[in-house]
């Protein structure tokens, strides 16, 4: 068994879609980034790469690469799952915490879990997603952006 941890932050920007775990969430702001800026999926990808000892998201999918402009982060996650299997690893489970003052995460949790489980090819119960606020403190509390944390467990296939 191997464990990995991931963390990511993206700032809010106008005229962007808000995508979290592959689900589009209705909100007047989206997240800024080279890809779809899916902060939660990015944290999960870093947790998986960390568990496998395969570096980080920026190394595999650099911002400088036009190929990844506007790309769905679920495509990147799919690539990472392939990398895991090429390296003899199998996904076990993941736990994500999404830190946002607004919008509320809980109504979208099931849809998010379904998207991730579909890409990973795991049971729904192997993914857990939690939404948290920071009690109006800090950049997340001021509604300047969203942070996400993830831990993932993998095992030798
Ligand atoms: Zn990111």
Automatic annotation (TrEMBL):
Residues 1-154 form the 2-C-methyl-D-erythritol 2,4-cyclodiphosphate synthase domain. Its EC number is 4.6.1.12. Its cofactor is a divalent metal cation. It catalyses: 4-CDP-2-C-methyl-D-erythritol 2-phosphate = 2-C-methyl-D-erythritol 2,4-cyclic diphosphate + CMP. GO terms for biological process: isopentenyl diphosphate biosynthetic process, methylerythritol 4-phosphate pathway; terpenoid biosynthetic process. Homotrimer. NCBIfam families: ispF. This is 2-C-methyl-D-erythritol 2,4-cyclodiphosphate synthase. It comes from Thermodesulfatator autotrophicus. The lineage of its organism: Bacteria, Pseudomonadati, Thermodesulfobacteriota, Thermodesulfobacteria, Thermodesulfobacteriales. The gene is ispF.
């Amino acid at each position: 068994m191997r464990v990995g941890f991931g963390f990511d932050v993206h700032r809010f920007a106008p005229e962007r879609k808000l995508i979290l775990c592959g689900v589009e969430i209705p909100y007047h702001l989206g997240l800024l980034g080279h890809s779809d800026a899916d902060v939660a999926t990015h944290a999960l990808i870093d947790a998986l790469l960390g568990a496998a000892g395969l570096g980080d998201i920026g190394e595999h999918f650099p911002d400088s690469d036009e190929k990844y402009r506007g790309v769905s982060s679920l495509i990147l996650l799919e690539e990472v799952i392939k990398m895991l299997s090429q390296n003899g690893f199998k996904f076990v489970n993941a736990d994500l915490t999404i830190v946002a003052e607004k919008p509320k995460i809980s109504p979208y949790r099931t849809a998010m879990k379904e998207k991730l489980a579909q890409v990973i090819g795991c049971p729904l119960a192997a993914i857990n997603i939690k939404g948290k606020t920071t009690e109006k403190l800090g950049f997340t509390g001021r509604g300047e952006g969203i942070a996400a944390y993830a831990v993932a467990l993998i095992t030798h296939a």
